[in-house]
Fold this sequence. Notes:
The chain is 37% helix and 19% strand. The chain is of the alpha/beta class. The strands form 4 sheets. The chain has a 5-stranded mixed sheet, sandwiched between helices. Helix 11 (369-379) links the parallel strand 14 and strand 15 (388-391). The protein is globular, with a radius of gyration of 24 Å. Mean pLDDT is 85; it is low at 1-8 and 216-232.
Amino acid sequence: MPVARAAATGPHVLRRMNVAAVLAALREGDAPTARVTDLATRTGLSRPAVTRALTELRDCGLVEFTASAGTPQLGRPAQYARFRAEAGHVAGVDIGPHKVLVMIADLAGTVLACHRAAVDEGSAGPQLFGTVRTALTAAAAEAGVPLSGLWAVSTGTPGIVDRERGEVLLAPSIPDWAGLPAVSMLREWLHCPVSIDNDVNLAVLAERWRGAAADTGPDTDTALDSLGSAGTGSDCLVFVQWGTRIGTGIVINGRPYRGNSAAAGELGFIDLVRDPDAPPGPRAADGMGPFEHLVGAEAIHRLAVEAGAPVGDDHDIAPLFAAAEAGDRAAVEVVDRVAARFARGLAALLLVLDPGRVVIGGGVSRAGDTLLEPVRKHLRAHALIPVALSASMLGERAVALGAVRHALDVAEERVTAAQVCR
């Protein structure tokens, strides 16, 4: 089926669209090598137009031509083109108050190295930036990729982010991180495009790409929009990061939704009818919202202690869910209470957005169906339309993987604009 493309005027624009279409069709085939005639069929372009686009991609170093292999054929041998995923590399960086996770990937989105660096407790912005540099250097070395060879770097961070200016406006969980010109400093160091976004907004990209919300296969009309795309996934999706803090990433009609001030999805600050001991106001002195004080990881630990249910040291709630799965009465009651609270808050979001799927990530999601099944039960009492609810399959890799996904999009923009050609 030909790939649908928007109309264009002018030879330059048309040529750029043809290059993008051919590159995407080659990248998204069953194998990295394809016949020129097959590419013409997939894109709906003429064979000469495909050949011209492949020649431009070859000049950029992204494609190489090969002769047909296998059984000898009569007549002129078929011409094949191979996508050179090794021609460039991108980095995705998850920056948080406790860890920095860096992934290095090739242009097919294959992760070549994943490096995790612990962040010293209480580290402020400048110290955290130093950890980011160290982790990037280590990850690149593990992948065998020079830092100068990165085509794009995308970073994710907690808080409210101005993506256009590359600034963190608010980050309650990281002292002195807001206002630090981390993006410009990384650009000066790496000499490549560097972007920043809210971490949960990147996690939702990963879930649509390679997570619980991904399609089983690419959609031929819309999936061929980037170098590393492997399917578009759910078009209307909410991803909830559920840990000590609670935030959401939102996709509407296939596009991330961030809101007017990039503050959309701050579920942790929704104010339900509070318990008598809940802190007043939209934000407590610790920077956490009312909903986080009701169902965040620390709140779950507190409820378990009050009920005499099993918990571990240092706010470890894994024993609570293990006990609930085993049928411990006190643990089951605590989990059900938490699920009821969470369902009420989540329902407010679902009633407004009507997503087709909700994916739960973060540390609390490791409880799996022991927690999610009660959440589903309580959601039925609040939601008008059933919604698919599942746990993330990506774990702590979601943000970094989403950053890789975004970096690949930036890399493709450089390719189609012929900015990487020499």
